[in-house]
Amino acid sequence: MGRGAVIRITDHLFRFDNGDGCATYLIRDRARAIVIDPGRCEWIDQLPRLGIETLEAIYLTHHHHEQLQGLYDLKRLPCTVHAPADDRRFIEPGPERFGDSRDLLLGDGCPASYAPPRRGIRSVAFDVVPNSDHYRLGRRIRFLHTPGHGSAAVSILFDIDGMQVVFSGDAVHHGGTVWEPFHLETDHWTGAGALAAWEGIERLRGVRIDLLCPSHGPVVRRAIGPTLRRLSRRLLRFYHAKGQISPRVADRYVPTEALGCGAVRISPHLFQFGSNGYLVVADSGRALVVDPCGADMAALSALRAELGNPEVARCTATHYHLDHCDAADRLREDFGAEVVLHERVSWPLWPPERHRILRAPWLPPSPVRADIELRGDGTFTWEGIDFEYFAAPGQTWWHAALIARIDGRRVLFSGDTIQPSSRWNGTGGFCAYNRSRLREGFVPTCKRLLRCKPDVVAAGHGTVFFFDRRKFVLIARWARTAERAVKALCPSRRPGEYYRWPATP
Question: Any idea which fold 257-499 has?
Fold first, then answer.
């Protein structure tokens, strides 16, 4: 079906193809009609050919750009546009639009919307409420809450030509899949969005559906029940993949000594301070900071004072998130510290042009330049301490790891990719927006660590525990299972469809 084509589905139901946008559906009753998800609005020119004189209403299943992009430039809306009540914040014009990723961010690190309207639209009625009814063309229109692509998304139930027809938006795609499944990720580490989508599909499964009309993909005419059942199972698998990544492995925390300043001594030359930072103090009295966070600088000052004010000569970061690197420039300015970053960590932070346009969670407000950039895998010695470094993608693609021999133990600084099993399901999370990778990320990282065999894991956010080989075997196994769950949701059956937004360079 080519762009702009009109397909008659039943005597009174038509579908318009919007090319790279969504499908638009039109229900006709003599010379009157209503439209669902207007897309590019190219169908307006074809109304006379279909004998339509009056457009009674336009309904939106959800707020995404491709559902309504044709409305931006209409000088006058041809009728009232009805939208989900809770989508007002995205559709209604206001002082804040969504061109900058930082405006999109919620506190939990995922956008409020992955595809918000690029401009506001006036004169929209936000009166589509789940489980409520409208009456058009002499028929009842019922709205079913089917979140997933958007928390307010609905499916629209309409009686047409003796059939119960459901216009499902992006809740379901042909074959029991989901169009662009990264929309299900409403935060960066739990399966809350997938579970909400599952509840919506379960609602649809309880309804008699003779024809299923999604926004993307073909109309589903046969095996509608099995299609929904298959999607329900896949959503639950994806939900479980967001859960524990190293089940029932004991944390086995390293004993530490509490200091008067509030920091802890892990070993004679290794300390943890604030919420996220580590301080390595060499015999020379010079110090290296791992994951310098601005919020932790007061805690670092107090720790240094208790230790006799060692000079901070170097700092590094395990990944680009602001709570792991945003104080690097301050340490350089205050102490002349060298900023040493792995190339994988440095990529989102420099040059300023890239940092400015990149859409990613938790970018520091200012770009961070490395004085020394570590490339690939390698080693270096600093003040008599041997370090090994390598890329360690997982929670984010832009992640690295360091292993240092400190006080006779090999200490892994793992950042947020690896956490104790009792914290955050064993990891700082995975989601497409954070450029997480499963087979390409967690698996090779775990294989590398199984070869390296560190003694201690100094994880991000201040937890230090003994290395347990079983944990990393389980994580690699989980990552393969999780990628299969992701793949099953993709209409193409290729996980790249999940990863493609935003594309990883």
Answer: Metallo-beta-lactamase; Chain A (3.60.15)
- 401 phi and psi, to 5 degrees? -135, 155
User: For the chain, how long is the longest CA-to-CA vector?
Assistant: 88
- 3-state DSSP assignment of residue 255: coil
Q: Are 149 and 194 in contact (CB under 8 A)?
A: no
CATH 3.60.15.10 range(s) for the chain read 6-241, 257-499
Q: What Rg do the C-alpha atoms of the chain give, in angstroms?
A: 27
Rounded to a whole number, what is the distance in angstroms from the first to the last CA of the chain? 33
With a CB cutoff of 8 Å and minimum separation 6, the contacts of 199 are 147
Separation in Å, CA 171 to CA 81, 199, 212, 230, 235? 21, 11, 11, 13, 11
Residues 6 or more apart whose Cβ sits within 8 Å of residue 366: 326, 329
Which residues touch 491 (CB under 8 Å, ≥6 apart)? Answer: 173, 174, 175, 177, 178, 179, 216, 217, 497
Q: In DSSP terms, which residues pair with 27 in a beta bridge?
A: 13, 34
Map residue 500 onto helix, strand or coil: coil
Q: Which residue has the tokens 């336009």?
A: 58
Q: What CATH code would you report for 6-241?
A: 3.60.15.10
Give the helix/strand (H/E) hosting 385. strand 385-391
Residue among 496, 479, 476 at smallest CA distance from 487 = 496
Q: Enumerate helices (H) and strands (E) in the chain, giving the number of each.
A: 13, 26
pLDDT at 2 over 70: no
* Half-sphere exposure in the Cβ direction for 272 (13 Å, CA): 21
3-state secondary structure of 126: strand
**How confident is the model over 7-40, as pLDDT tens digits?**
999 999 999 987 766 899 999 999 999 999 999 9
Query: Which tens digits make up the pLDDT trace of 459-501?
Result: 999 999 999 999 999 999 999 999 999 999 999 988 888 887 6
Here the contacts of 469-473 (C-beta below 8 Å, separation 24 or greater) are: 470/246, 470/249, 471/246, 471/249, 471/418, 471/421, 471/426, 472/246, 472/418, 472/446, 473/446
pTM of the shown model: 0.92
The answer to whether residues 434 and 396 touch, using CB atoms and an 8 Å cutoff, is yes
CB 177 within 8 A of CB 237: no
CA–CA separation, 404 vs 379, rounded Å? 10
Residue 264 to residue 236: CA distance in whole angstroms? 41
Under the banding of pLDDT at 50, 70 and 90, the label for residue 1 is very low
